[in-house]
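Posting here for the record, re: zinc ion.
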Amino acid sequence: MSDPRAIYLKDYQVPTYQIEQTELRFDLSSEATRVRARLCVQRDDTTSVSEPLVLDGEALTLISVAIDGRPLDAAEYDADEHSLTLHAVPDRFWLETEVEIAPASNTALEGLYQSNGMFCTQCEPEGFRRITFYPDRPDVMSRFTTTVIGDRTTLPVLLSNGNPIDQCVIDDARHYVTWEDPHPKPAYLFALVAGNLEKREDHFTTASGRDVLLQLWVETQNLNKTEFAMNALKRSMRWDEERFGREYDLDRFMIVAVDDFNMGAMENKGLNIFNSSAVLANPETTVDMMFQRIEGIVAHEYFHNWSGNRVTCRDWFQLALKEGFTVFRDQLFSSDVNSAPVKRIEDVALLRTAQFAEDSGPTAHPVRPDHFIEITNFYTLTVYEKGAEVVRMLRNLLGWEQFRQGSDLYFDRFDGQAVRVEDFIDCMAEVSGQDLTRFMLWYAQAGTPEVTATSAYDADARCLTLSLSQRTPPTPGQTEKEPLQIPVAMGLVGADGKDLPLIMNGESLGTSTVLVMTDAEHRFVFENLDAAPVPSLLRGFSAPVKLHHALSDEQLAFLMRHDSDGFNRWDAGQQLALSELERLMAAWHADEPLVVGDRLIDTMRALITEPADDKAVLAEMLRLPSEAFIAEQQAEVHIDAIHHARRAATRALGEALYDEFAALYDRERSDAPYSPHFEQIAQRSLKNVALGYLCATGRPDALALAQAQFDDNANMTDVRAALTQLAHADDTALGEPAVRAFGERWAHDPLVMDQWFATQVSRPQPDALERVRFLMGHEAFSIKNPNRVRALIGTFVNQNLVNFHREDGQGYRLLADVVIELNRLNPDIAARMVLPLTRFRRLDPVRRAAMRGELERIRGESLSRSVFEVVEKALA
Ligand code: ARG
Ligand code: ZN
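Prediction output follows.
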């Protein structure tokens, strides 16, 4: 492909034609599906009569074009690779086109494609243009009526958005169903599903008393995995009414599970389509973490019905308008129905490893990018997760009451419209009276701001001066940065471990407050303090920044025990562990023995033996910082040092606290029937953390415990935790047979086989890479299925850092081989998979050169726009 051109936000122009009505007719067939579109086209008032009508279209075979029933001959239109152009059209007319497409050979999984024989669609962001010629942009909204014609035996179920209004048998072979969606929508929310599916059905009564039919459609063998998602859906519907005052607006809501899917799920109006891994669950096949992820995704897609569908985006630069807000909403939901501090800990851990890495690398971009080559590359952690943090900061600045008022105003004022980020922020400014001009910079500036805090206590004046400064490092294309508006939630912890009253300028602020930074530097003076307190800053991680607050190990240990903020208690523990790990890394570099200090061991012992109020938090506190998090803290990254330091620490803790961990393991065992309730999840999590430390010692009695847990076969969470310990042990005597048994038992279930792949290729021993190559030839693996690719290749490159970054460059080579193949099959997935290869800046020269070399090799290929954009940025 010759240099694809970038598209800029500043070049936005209003649509010249609107589509009042969209009537589609699909005649389904694997190799030659016919799509007829009747569009009621209306020229915009501001458009000149000479303006041509330009429709988007990709990979379509044009059969015919007609205006108001009159067929056009080829001289009357221009059709090229990407568009259909009609000159001199009436003000208002019916345009009819017919095209042919080939769903079975669509491996990109955008537009209409097939998965296990079933037909399904993915249109966001620009897939609809692979279905028919259309103005494929979110600010063109239309009423859709869709007729789906299919084979009666192989495609008994025919679905689209809205309500079924007509259905009939056509002949011996075929039948059809016509669907009508009363809500005008952009084309990216269109969906069609056809297949041999079965359903779980339920009902929901809305707050105003309307009955909604709920259906979850799956392949027959998956019916026993639908109960959890259905209940999660009902919880989400109730929650959105209670928390945000949002009620569902159609008579039915359908979810379909699909095996081949690029992302997690899609919020098509009334017909959500889900990656089967994001919806199917039962205790025998699914681990606790996945139950929670599924609950969050079901909620996320459902919440989009308002934040995304009723109020949508003007253009794709505004993607975070719907995604940031909706992620914030799903986070709030999950924290309301589960352990709130643990939900926060998990979200921040993801942000501080993966999103911070993105923000400091070559593909860094603002929450609202101002240009792109391929928009599918911008469904990123920055848009989603940092976008959610930005919305959370608004909540922190305004408080919940005003935030909710702003949300109500936004939904009320912009219902049925396609709008911009500014429209959302304006509502928040209006209800609160706050000036949010500077706040808008969060959407425009890339990079993670660094906040440095120092404090000085003056015993004579009995006051503490807290100095806060901020700086955002340069990112590609943005060298100068301005100060941002940053809410810093904080408190001061007294010697007795209790929060002290905060008094500033004689005014009492309670025991926890939000300081607001708007300048590069600030000083805050707290009065009436009898002794120097320990400041607890950025409580609940109130802003997505890197905080530099030089606390001693004593102070960290103190906050870890006493901070009233659960998140900060955990974070203090992580900082404390990090400082110990950094000592071990230094020892590794100096070729000295890796000896773990007593402080870490003693704090861990105290955690285990003292009674815990929240077991879920305790389990998190017992985990050492992940390798990816440690790497993110280093100016120069030495993967081997990180890996060996962390392994040594885990083993030393296991040895030193063997009896305590064994007692903890026993204490948290339970015979209660499995439930995905968070209290049970916390218990299993705690038990399996203990098992991990025990097995890290390599002692036979520890591995025997894992073997017994594996054989016990109580639920997948415990089986998988045990299998991981067995398969990751140096001694393969128990691991090999367990891996084999598990693989045979679950050969029929692809979602379990994904876990089987992931467990094997995350093995830290040096044979992991050969294992990946070997498993790529396994019959359960297919490079065409994104879940398989993520489980096998994604797990290896993202979670087995020491083997991916092998000094001989074989890990990089393997990834590049995969990316080159995927580039031809599925550009979206290829462009995601290549990302770890682009993060070479802070590595040593040997690895840097090897990674660049593989990127150059990829660049030598004929690249899709998606992969081109990422590789160009990395090599720039
Ligand atoms: N809007 C969907 C969600 O976040 C994601 C769809 C992304 N699709 C894609 N091809 N990138 O729920
Ligand atoms: Zn979303």
